[in-house]
């Protein structure tokens, strides 16, 4: 077993651990459903929502974690380092969080915060990693408030627009 396979993070009611192949279907649907429910996409068939459902492919180049409450997956995130085809913004020495999602029925209960805390702990255990980075929507105020409350700093010079769209994304980093 490698360190990713044995890494876990616990809170009073959550277990965060590496997703197994048996979890991939749930992770893909959870991510697509949570993004759609938040109003980020006009249709559940949007190309990006089809992309996030391809968990097996993503798992070959990244670490995908799930948050379980009483054995049920209620959240997930993907952790990526520079060099992965899935890295959007990772620079050398950064661990990038992508596709963080929480079941809409479990939102506002600390699951997202626990996932981010788990990513910070995972980053601290990786050689050569000195910060955590992530991208979020410019208008996703609740997500931005969460990251800011956890001392992530907005890096406006790294903000970007999704090619072919008017969707503005903002970048946050946390120095470890």
Tell me what the structure shows:
The chain has 176 residues and is an alpha+beta fold. It is 30% helix and 30% strand. It is built from 6 helices and 9 strands; from the N terminus they run αββαααβββαβαβββ. It has helices spanning 3-6, 24-37, 47-52, 55-59, 111-124, 141-149; strands spanning 8-10, 15-18, 63-69, 72-81, 94-102, 131-137, 153-154, 160-161, 168-175. Strands 1, 2, 3, 4, 5, 6, 7, 8 and 9 form a 9-stranded mixed beta sheet that branches.
In percent, how much strand structure appears in the residues? 25-35%
Q: Report the biggest beta sheet as strand number plus sense, adding barrel if it closes.
A: 9 strands, mixed
Radius of gyration from the alpha-carbon trace, in angstroms = 15 Å
SSE pattern = HEEHHHEEEHEHEEE
Task: Summarize this structure briefly.
The protein is of the alpha+beta class and 176 residues long.
Give the key terms.
176 residues; alpha+beta; 30% strand
Show the helix and strand layout.
Elements: H1 3-6, E1 8-10, E2 15-18, H2 24-37, H3 47-52, H4 55-59, E3 63-69, E4 72-81, E5 94-102, H5 111-124, E6 131-137, H6 141-149, E7 153-154, E8 160-161, E9 168-175
Parallel strand pairs: 5-6
Antiparallel strand pairs: 1-2, 2-3, 3-4, 4-5, 6-9, 7-9, 8-9
């Amino acid at each position: 077993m490698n360190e990713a396979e044995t890494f876990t993070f616990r809170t009073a009611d959550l277990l965060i651990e590496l997703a197994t192949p048996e979890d991939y279907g749930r992770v893909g649907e959870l991510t697509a459903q949570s993004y759609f429910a938040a109003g980020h996409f006009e249709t559940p068939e949007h190309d990006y929502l089809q992309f996030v459902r391809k968990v097996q492919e993503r798992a070959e180049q990244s670490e995908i974690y799930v948050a379980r409450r009483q054995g049920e997956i209620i959240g997930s995130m993907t952790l990526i380092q520079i060099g992965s085809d899935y890295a959007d913004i990772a620079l050398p020495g950064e661990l990038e969080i992508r596709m963080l999602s929480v079941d809409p029925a479990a939102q506002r209960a600390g699951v997202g915060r626990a996932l981010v805390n788990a990513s910070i702990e995972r980053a601290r255990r990786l050689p050569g990693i000195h910060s955590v980075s992530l991208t979020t929507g410019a208008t996703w105020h609740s997500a931005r408030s969460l990251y800011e409350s956890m001392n992530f700093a907005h890096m406006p010079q790294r903000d970007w627009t999704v090619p072919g769209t008017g969707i503005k994304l903002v970048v946050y980093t946390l120095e470890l």
